[in-house]
Amino acid sequence: MKILSIETSCDETGISVLEGIENTLHVRGNSLATQMELHAQYGGVFPAMAKRAHAEKFVPLLTETLTQAGMLVSEPHEIPAAVQDEVRSICTHEQELAEQLITFAQTHAVPDIEQIAVTSGPGLEPALWVGVNAAKALGLLWNKPVYPINHMEGHIVSALLQATDDKTYTITEFAYPALTLLVSGGHTELVLIDAPLSYKKIGKTVDDAVGEAFDKVARMLDLPYPGGPKISALAAEARANNLILDFTLPRPMIHADNYNFSYSGLKTAVLYLIRDLKEKKPDALQDDNLKKMISREFEEAAIEVLVSKTACAISEYGIRTLIVGGGVAGNTYLREQLQIKIAEKFDIPVLLPGKGLSTDNSIMIGMALYYQLLHRGIPDHEKTAGAFRADGNLSI
Ligand code: KG4
Ligand code: ZN
């Protein structure tokens, strides 16, 4: 089963060619372009710029991925005028991309893939539309079915990929019921999985996502976007040097009788703390040790809530596997705490995404389709191809 997968939900453009053979996923080609530097100056992702950057990068990345997969074959052929017009109408708001895709299809052989998988949501809608429209256009030009993939399902299944080398993954089997902790820049959720592909959300953030809180606190500390990894590095230095802040930040909703989260209050508490420190000493933040201590206290507060709520859900639902996904799953301190407070305490496996798979990428999107095909078989083409929209608020 060969799949071309596409991810454009936020600030990473990803295109992969994957081949699933039973419980193994082979990466035949993979390319990822990040817009991080583009957005760094704004301290967050700027949707209109993200959309333009995805559209500009799309065909170069497609070329790169197909080259890696040995599927880029020059072969001039005519595309009927009616098909060209339909591509132009699918990509109404991306006319340059439409022309590039038509030219690409006219000059290259149809690649040896069977399906196209594309993130249809959740995410930034203008960004999502670029991937969705390009996928639909390619589906038409190549006569291949196109399947919409939920980005969060991609983050879930990314943790099932166990690397055997840098291009081959074994798909991990796991015991049910399983629980997923999804932690990214846009989401903080606990999702119950009691059978393959059966997802039930039991809790989510009522305001900011945990990754968003990392990014916002990083900004307050004058650290560049995206702040998660930088806060984490400073916090680790504080721990290594035994630097402890003489102030305790709140652990919002840690004792609430539900599985919801809240990160806006924690973020505001950091804001007030910094304001008070600056009132006493205007150049307080020039002190690197102080930044390290604030990072440490913030990281520990943010992660303590995640781990504590996850542990409660594991007890209540008799969970036999914990799956963790999303950008914050790359956080070293979270990984350590999950090992101590979940894996060892409950004696259950904690599945975490490997290198390069926790933040946004297109391997997880192709994997989500392959996983669906393994468990549900090939869906009716007519029901999926073309008949879906980008949906910024899509839920699991
Ligand atoms: O999953 P992702 O790439 O994009 C979304 O779907 O949101 O997650 C990105 C988020 C950002 O907020 C980033 O700061 C955070 O994940 N992040 C981290 C770490 N690496 C990425 N947060 C804390 N520690 C990290 N090591
Ligand atoms: Zn994501």
Describe this structure in words.
With 396 residues, this protein is α/β, with parallel strands linked by helices. The protein has 13 helices and twelve strands. The strands form two sheets. It has a seven-stranded mixed β-sheet with strand order 5-4-1-2-3-7-6, sandwiched between helices. A hairpin with a 4-residue loop joins strand 8 (178-183) and strand 9. Helix 2 (47-68) packs parallel to helix 5 and helix 4 runs parallel beside helix 5 (125-142). The longest helix has 30 residues, at 288-317. The protein binds 5'-O-[(R)-(carboxyoxy)(hydroxy)phosphoryl]adenosine and zinc ion. Residues 151, 155, 184, 326, 360 line the site of zinc ion.
The tally of beta strands, per DSSP, is 12
Low-confidence stretches: none
The spatial strand order of the largest sheet comes to 5-4-1-2-3-7-6
Average pLDDT figure: 95
Radius of gyration: 22 Å
Outline the biggest β-sheet.
Answer: 7 strands, mixed
Structural class: alpha/beta
Bound molecule kinds, no repeats: 5'-O-[(R)-(carboxyoxy)(hydroxy)phosphoryl]adenosine, zinc ion
Helical stretch tally: 13
**Overall morphology:** globular
Distance between the termini: 25 Å
The share of residues in helices is 40-55%
Helices and strands, in N-to-C order?
EEEHHHHEHEHEEEEEHHHHEHEHH
Strand content: 15-25%
In short:
The protein contains 13 helices and twelve strands. It has 396 residues and is α/β, with parallel strands linked by helices. The structure holds 5'-O-[(R)-(carboxyoxy)(hydroxy)phosphoryl]adenosine (KG4) and zinc ion.
